[in-house]
Amino acid sequence: MDGALHRRIAADLTRRIQQREWLPGDQIPSRAALAAEYDVHEQTIRLAVTLLRKRGLLEGEQRSRLFVAHPPAMRALINPDADWPHPSETTDTAPRRATVELAARLDVPVGTRLQHETVECLDPGGRSAMLVSSWWRGRRQPHDSFVVEVGAIELHERQAHALGLTVDTLAYRLVRTRLDTAGRAVETADLVLPMDRWVLRF
Fold first, then answer.
1. DSSP SS3 for 158
2. Could you tell me the CATH number of the domain that includes residue 110?
3. Residue spans of beta strands (DSSP E) within 48-95
4. Taking a C-beta distance cutoff of 8 angstroms, is the pair 169, 181 a contact?
5. 127 and 59, same structural domain?
6. CATH code of 47's domain
7. In 17, 39, 58, 88, which residue has its Cα 20 to 30 A from 10's Cα atom?
8. Using an 8 Å Cβ cutoff, are 112 and 97 in contact?
9. How many domains does the structure of the chain reveal?
10. Contact indicator for 92, 120 with CB cutoff of 8 Å
11. How far apart are CA 172 and CA 196, in angstroms?
12. Ramachandran region of residue 117, left (φ > 0), alpha (ψ -120 to 50) or beta?
């Protein structure tokens, strides 16, 4: 089976939900009906709806009826340096070479080998609420303070999939740089927050 097929079906079901073919609280067609509509095996539909349940677009148990989820509650971000109080999943720890931007943020030469971590922060219901990608040189160091720049980005494919949104959706991008007691950068991070789930208050 094409490993990307269920993702394409999930993307199409997401589009149909966003175009209000089904409203929050509506029951979607059965897995058998969707399999017939998309001309695929029912297991492919199971994978697609499992993905949408994880992203918070559908509600219901694995083997029962599924409904379009109501929009997630808005959260307020007050301290962008606070520990996340709910579960999280580390999705990427591959080292990176410093790009021009990262080199400037960490005051290191371009191409410097950096440690890297991307964490998916989940809300109490297990839905993805925020993505945090961090970079630092050598061993992680304690920090004394931090600075934050706030902007907006269009989500690329991997971010959009993780957050259950469509590609090019606008999201907040917070560039957080942690500083030591001398004011030197010891770590920098991008915090990506969906605009439909967050307000910023700091």
1. helix
2. 3.40.1410.10
3. 58-59, 67-68, 75-77, 88-92
4. no
5. no
6. 1.10.10.10
7. 88
8. yes
9. 2
10. no
11. 10
12. beta
What pLDDT shows up at residue 168? 79
Please tell me whether residues 95 and 43 are part of one structural domain.
no
Domain check: are 33 and 48 in the same one?
yes
Q: Which two tokens stand for residue 17?
A: 């939900």
Average pLDDT over residues 67-94: 88
CA neighbor of 131 nearest in space, from 184, 197, 72, 68: 197
Which residues span the domain enclosing 99? Answer: 75-200
Q: Global pTM?
A: 0.69
d(CA 7, CA 91): 18
**Structural domain ending residue among the three candidates 33, 68, 103:** 68
- For residue 6, pLDDT over 80 is answered with yes
pLDDT exceeds 60 at position 2: no
What is the sign, positive or negative, of the torsion defined by CA atoms of 72, 167, 55, 50?
positive
Residue 53 CB partners (closer than 8 Å, separation 6+) = 59, 60, 62, 66
Q: Residue 163: what pLDDT? A: 84
Of 68, 99, 120, the one marking the end of a domain is 68
Query: Which residue in 32, 55, 41 sits closest to 6, CA to CA?
Result: 41
Same domain for 110 and 194: yes
